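Quick one, probably user error.
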């Protein structure tokens, strides 16, 4: 991407489109089917390397969760795929990448305006890089999920190619839109329902309405009832080791809450600081989350506002270097917490009002660490891969493809990317071939993990 010194994309519309079309000569769209053999690759070694900086007692839970299925392995193996993508063709157009754009990292949540919106919702690995990398990880995730559900060939292809086709078509529409129109574009519950109604898909409409209603109940009040209880008349976080452990039970050195919270407040806009200061600190607990994130230091913070039934739950999650950094160069931000927050704000249409970051140079174990902060629950929901049907997966693929295109259009040269992709299905088919080949590789990698655990190379705790 050609930019000016102040960061603006250079050239007019025609020049940018010409750059996109010219890139096809050096990187044909059909070349994106390529997946290098990788004979000397060792996915288990990459996972072991990643585990060195994590809480050792929790790492076996991560491996246990990855053992569950090839799709679970894929979710936890962003670093493995990043290294595989490094040798794939690039057209030369960078965007702000999610870095982990698999289908379970999309979902619904509440916007600041209290609308239910659909968007990307995980940015631990966000980093500038080739737009193709996110598209290929998304496509591969649909192939792998469809195989897990034992869908037929035609059903798998429809979901995979649907995600890529909608990405391409949406990028072409964004290329024709003004800057503000692109920035304001978003996919909310109303838009999804309207589309289902236009398509007369009453079954999917009913399913979506049910899911949306359920998402509205996944809020701070539900968390208060599920994650806390009264102890001597005081609200306290429940203890469910090893997944939820209050700070007092960890036996670690004292955490400097006041100092760390002060740094977090400074990362927020002034109006959010005023709101935050209406709440008082109650308790902190370690909380294990996700699959790929297991072992990162993650905390759940309970605060209360006007009374005991006015909670705010914040998640404070360790921010390590992106898995893309060794392949694409260091972040321009000194703090990885700030890297994640800024990447999220750039890619999402609506971001959490409490999104902020902390640099902790006085962590109890003496190691400087970065964290980012967000609300723990705010109408959050995601796809249930274990129950989705073929028609639902195809519809979900379309939503993810559009959303990823919108996220990339905000940060990259959407005009050049759209011109490169064109109006044919060459890119779609190539990425579909890549996704099938990568799903085969992922199955072998999952088997390698199973073998490594059986041989005693890696410890694993299943069912947690």
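Nope, works fine. Designed sequence:
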């Amino acid at each position: 991407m050609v930019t000016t010194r102040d960061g603006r994309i250079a050239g007019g519309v025609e020049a940018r489109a010409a750059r996109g079309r010219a890139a096809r000569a050096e990187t044909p769209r059909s070349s994106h089917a390529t997946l290098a053999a990788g004979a000397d690759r060792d996915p288990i070694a990459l996972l072991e390397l990643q585990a060195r900086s994590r809480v050792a007692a929790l790492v076996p839970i991560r491996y246990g969760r990855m053992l569950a299925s090839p799709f679970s392995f894929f979710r936890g193996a962003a670093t493995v795929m990043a290294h595989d993508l490094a040798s794939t063709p690039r057209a030369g157009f960078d965007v702000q990448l999610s870095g982990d754009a698999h289908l379970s990292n999309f979902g619904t949540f509440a916007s600041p305006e209290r609308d239910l919106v659909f968007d990307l919702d995980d940015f631990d690995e966000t980093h500038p890089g080739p737009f193709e990398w996110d598209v290929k990880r998304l496509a591969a995730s649909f192939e792998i999920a469809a195989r897990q559900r034992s869908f037929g060939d035609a059903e798998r292809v429809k979901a995979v190619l649907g995600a890529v086709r909608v990405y391409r078509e949406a990028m072409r529409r964004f290329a024709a839109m003004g800057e503000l129109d692109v920035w304001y574009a978003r996919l909310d519950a109303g838009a999804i329902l309207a589309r289902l109604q236009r398509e007369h898909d009453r079954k999917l409409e009913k399913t979506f309405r049910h899911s949306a209603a359920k998402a509205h109940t996944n809020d701070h009040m539900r968390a208060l009832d599920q994650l806390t209880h009264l102890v001597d008349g005081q609200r306290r976080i429940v203890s469910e080791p090893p997944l939820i452990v209050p700070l007092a039970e960890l036996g670690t050195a004292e955490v400097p809450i006041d100092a760390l919270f002060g740094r977090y407040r400074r990362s927020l806009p002034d109006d959010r600081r005023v709101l935050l200061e209406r709440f008082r600190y109650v308790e902190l607990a370690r909380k294990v989350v996700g699959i790929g994130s297991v072992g990162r230091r993650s905390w759940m913070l309970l605060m209360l506002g006007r009374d005991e039934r006015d909670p705010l739950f914040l998640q404070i999650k360790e921010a390590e270097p992106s898995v893309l950094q060794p392949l694409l160069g260091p972040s321009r931000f000194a703090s990885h917490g700030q890297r994640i927050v800024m990447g999220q704000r750039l890619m999402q249409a609506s971001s959490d009002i409490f999104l902020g970051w902390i640099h902790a140079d006085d962590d109890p174990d003496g190691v400087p660490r970065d964290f980012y902060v967000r609300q723990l629950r705010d109408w959050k929901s995601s796809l249930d891969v274990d129950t989705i049907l073929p028609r639902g997966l195809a519809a979900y693929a379309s939503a993810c493809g559009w959303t990823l295109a919108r996220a990339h259009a905000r940060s990259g040269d959407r005009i050049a990317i759209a011109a490169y992709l064109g109006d044919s299905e060459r890119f779609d088919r190539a990425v579909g071939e890549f996704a099938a080949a990568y799903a085969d590789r992922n199955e072998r990698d999952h088997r390698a993990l199973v073998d490594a655990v059986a041989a005693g190379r890696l410890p694993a705790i299943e069912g947690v």
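The two ends are 45 Å apart (CA to CA).
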